[in-house]
Amino acid sequence: MMARRTFLASSAAATAPVGQGTAAAATGVGEDGDRLDTDFLAFLTTAADARAESILDGYAAYLTELRDQGKARSSARALRTLTSVYVHEESAHHHDGELLGPLGELADTLAEEQFDDGLWDQGAAHSPPDTAFSIVDLNLAYSLLDEDGHGPTRALRATVERILRAAGPALATGGLHTANHRWLVCAALARIHRRWPDPAYPRRIDDWLAEGIDQLPGGEYSERSPTYAAVVSNPALLTIARFHDRPDLYANVRENLNASLPVIEPNGEVEMVHSRRQDQTTLRYLPEFWLQYRELAIRDGDGRFAAVAALLRERGAGQTFGETPLGDRLAEVLDRPELARKLPQVADLPTDFEHHDTACALVRVRRGDRTASIFGGTDFPDLHAISSGLSTNPTFFKMRKGAAILDSLRLAPQFFSLGHFRAENLERTDGGWRLTAEVRAAFHQPLPPQHRRPDGLYPLTDDGRFWSAMDFPHRPKEYRTLRTEVVVKESADGSWALDVQLAGSEVPFALELCFRRGGTLAGAGLEEVKDSPDKYHLVTGEATYTVGGDRITFGPGNGKGGKQPPVVDAGERYSWMNGSLTPDGVRVLITGRSPLTYRLTLR
User: Fold this and answer.
1) Rounded CA gap, 186 and 211, in Å?
2) How far lies 310's CA from each of 10, 87, 314, in Å?
3) What is the rounded end-to-end Cα distance, in angstroms, of the chain?
4) At what angle are helices 179-195 and 200-209 packed, to 10 degrees?
5) Which DSSP symbol is given to 425?
6) Distances from the Cα of 140 to the Cαs of 83, 144, 167, 221, 419, in angstroms?
7) Which helix (H) or strand (E) holds 444?
8) Is-contact 589 534, C-beta < 8 A?
9) How many helices (H) and strands (E) does the chain have?
10) What is the pLDDT of residue 231?
11) DSSP 10-53
12) Are 392 and 378 in contact (CB under 8 A)?
């Protein structure tokens, strides 16, 4: 199917100016020299061949998961990947008859397990959005098979067509759960409509799009999740742009990729502390952005995006490549041959900056191989809830020097079991950044006479921490208050000073520093916390965390103030449900009692 000449013509046509046809574009390739990135294609083809071998060795497991649990996504993705190597002329599996059996069995089982309404379960009963994930992959696979037109796949194509046609009406009428699901469903419908038109499909797409793209002023989507932007929203919007005649959506993806530039670490990891989704407590590579940066780099001639695409390829080589195995990507390039064009000249990415995303209350600072994150944008101060879909990570500072990484700095007062300090705001102050919060808890007085009941049975109400049949709203109250302020300042020598002030009630607290595993912790004032592996108490002086030639020195200790052994109180919202907020890594506690002012220095 996709030989070198075909890629040249197809990629040129896809990026040719308006009014310039395929033939002219192909001629332009010849005039300007070879624009095909043969190294990129060979890299992907090798990965896809290896991935196909892995699928063939264990594809029965996909079928078992589909039949026993109704989960279609892994089977649909396996079918897509096997299709890509089957149709690609440069693949070792091109038109390999041994693939026809597994391809046919995957398609047949997907058809058998599809409900009469066109949906699969995938963890939620008859779920339109979960079905859409699989339909996106099957749309792509069908397009590749149809363009290839190889006789032995005729029955396979018929089965996949039947699946897609059955899913269309359900996606055009069914509901969904999250913000990104809207664009996913639209992407699935747009491709089905392009091949088998139905006026209900564009109407539904336009209904969802009429709600507006949920993009914040800084470029993040409303979920503030790099993972869901890279895995769902951006790919879906790019598909809608292509198949629903909405080229304006490229601007949304471009803005999101621009917003992602400051949160990319020197090693290619992506900061996610500001996310409202499951990734808010992780920091990892996100090579799902790879082909998006590549596509916009080629489309716009953007050397910065080209640099990120090159970095993500380098970091992803030999890895799982995020949530998507590297070999699975070949299908996307076969579907959009313009991705196989050579990248524009790489431009240097900024390595010395301070960036404030006000919509997420996130500050990113980079000085060469030193970076820091300051975060004050959780949803907790407004909503007082810990729930899926909310930003609740109490980490307010991170830093790294090369391989020495402080993944988390948190402050946990033991104040009425209300949990960690979570800033109510983040504001610029003289020479630094100020994070502040005030929390309070009530003691309740007797009810006024007009609210007393002779039967003693009062409404079950919430006092903000717990529920009781006490009619709390009508009771006079006396409050205990704790005010916290953290001022974060960077010095010219690259060190950081964090001035912590707690005022109001007298309570013990713990500052918790959590370092990435793999280094050595040293300091005369360190004491190991009993029955807690990799947990230490810095009582006096400074300590150093070293990884290779990189190190972070921090302190000083603040004595043995607070409870002994020192504890980190995550709050009753976690303890009541036996939940945990303990970060993974080497943890060091610095303790004390409020009221106090304390300066933590990191260098």
Assistant:
1) 12
2) 23, 27, 6
3) 57
4) 150
5) E
6) 9, 6, 15, 25, 47
7) strand 432-444
8) no
9) 17, 21
10) 93
11) HHHHHHSPTT--HHHHHHHHHHH---B-HHHHHHHHHHHHHHHH
12) yes
Token pair, residue 480, equals 């205990």
Q: How far apart are CA 92 and CA 99, in angstroms?
A: 12
HEC profile of 483-496: EEEEEEEECCCCCE
Beta bridge partners of 536: 528, 588
Residue 68, class by beta-carbon neighbours within 10 Å (0-12 exposed, 13-18 middle, 19+ buried)? exposed
DSSP three-state, residue 343: coil
Decide: residue 96, CB within 10 A, 0-12 exposed, 13-18 middle, 19+ buried.
Answer: middle
Per-residue pLDDT of 295-311, as tens digits, reads 999 999 999 999 999 98
Kindly report the backbone phi and psi dihedral angles of residue 577, in degrees, each rounded to the nearest multiple of 5, phi listed first. -100, 10
CB contact at 8 A, 339 and 364: no
**Three-state SS at 574:** helix
Burial 327-364 (b: 16+ CB within 10 A, else e): bbbbbbbbbbbbbbbbbbebeebeeeeeebbebbbbbb
Alpha-carbon 465 to chain mean position:
31
Taken as a whole, the chain contains a residue count of: 603
* Long-range contacts, 540-546 (Cβ 8 Å, 24+): 542/601, 543/588, 545/404, 545/406, 545/515, 545/519, 545/520, 545/521, 545/586, 546/404, 546/519, 546/520, 546/522
Alpha-carbon gap, residue 11 to 519, rounded angstroms:
47
3-state secondary structure of 351: coil
Which residues have C-beta within 8 Å of that of residue 187, sequence separation ≥ 6?
132, 136, 235, 236, 237, 239, 240, 243
Residue owning tokens 């009406």: 169
Flag whether the pTM goes above 0.90: yes
Q: Tell me, what DSSP letter sits at residue 305?
A: H
**Within 13 A of 74's CA, how many CA atoms are on the CB side?**
16
CA distance linking residue 592 with residue 561, whole number of Å: 4
Tell me the pLDDT tens digit for each residue of 236-277.
999 999 999 999 999 999 999 999 999 999 888 899 999 999
Tokens of 501: 């002030």
d(CA 314, CA 465): 49
Say which amino acid occupies 90.
E
Q: How far is CA 105 from CA 87, 110, 585, in A?
A: 18, 8, 44
Residue-wise pLDDT for 5-20, tens only, equals 456 555 555 544 333 3
- Containing 58, the helix (H) or strand (E) segment is helix 38-69
Cβ atoms of 271 and 232 closer than 8 Å: no
CA distances 59 to 55, 100, 106, Å, are 5, 13, 8
List 528's β-bridge partners, or say none.
Answer: 536
